[in-house]
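Sample intake sheet
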Amino acid sequence: MTGEPALRTVGLGKRYGRGAWALRECDLDLPAGRIVGLVGVNGAGKSTLMHLTIGLLQPTEGTVELFGQPLRMDRPAALAQVGFVAQDHPSTAASASPTCSTSDGR
């Protein structure tokens, strides 16, 4: 597959208040049409990463792009092309190991 990735993060990070970083310097390219499992130990930043990539959290640093466009909450059309399913709580944005796919089911 060629072209822009479905999801790209560059230098993405989230810090809560003056405390520890939940995620730092995350660079990620997710090609369109791929299914990806995100695994890691508790506290590794999996849920924080997913919440940043769908706009539930604002990053402290870095950027998120969906289909080549910067993630902006005032442009929900880009978010309509992304699915987010939390493993433990599918109907909420609670902390869980997520799964994502593109809107065309790939």
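Comment: The helical segments are 46-53, 76-79. Confidence is low (pLDDT under 50) at residues 90-103.
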